[in-house]
Design brief:
By secondary structure, the protein is an alpha+beta fold. Helices cover 23% and strands 32% of the residues. The chain is built from 5 helices and 9 strands, in the order αβββαββββααβαβ. The longest helix has 13 residues. The N and C termini lie far apart (46 Å).
Amino acid sequence: MPEKPTIITLQDLKQLPIGTPFHTVAAVRHTERKTGKTGTPYLQVEVGDAIDHLNFTCFENQQPFAFFQQPVQRFPHIVQLEGTIDFYNKKLSPTIKSAKSLDGEDYEYYLPKVLEGPDEALEDLKQELQSWIEKIEQKELNAFTINFTRMGEESGLSRIPFVECCKAMERGTGYAGEGD
C-alpha cells in the first residue's frame, strides 16, 4: 500500500518558499467562474481549514478547473489539493496541480480539522441541537433556520453547532442561517 503524503495546514503552507510542492486538505468555501481580458474562462477558488484560508486560480487547461465545476456530492466539500508554491505580483498564488474529493474514513478524519472547532464538546452541541429540533411542534417540517443575532437562553441554543448543521443537511434536513 503506498504511503500517504504529508498533509500540511494552510497556515504552514503560506510559509513555504517558492517552488515547494505541497499536499493539503481543506473545505471548499467559494468558487466563482470568471472570464479574463482575452475571453479565457478561469475559476477563483477559496478553501479553508480550521485556522486559515487560501485563494487560488484554476485555468481551463488544468484538472482542477474541471474538478471544481462538478456538482458537489457532500457538504462541506472537503478536498485534497496537490500543488506548488508560487507568487504572482508578490502575492501568494499557488499552482494547484490536482484536486480530489475526500470520502469515507478520510472525510470523517479530516472533517474536524477543516472546520473551526467549537470551544465546548461537540457531543454537547449535538445534543443541544437535537433537543432544539425535537421541540418543533410541526413534525412534518424538514428544515430549520437559526438567527445568529438571537442566540442564547431565548433561542435554546448557546452557540451555532455548524458541524451538526452540516451533518443535518447531509441527512436531507434543510438549514439556513440568518442575521449574518
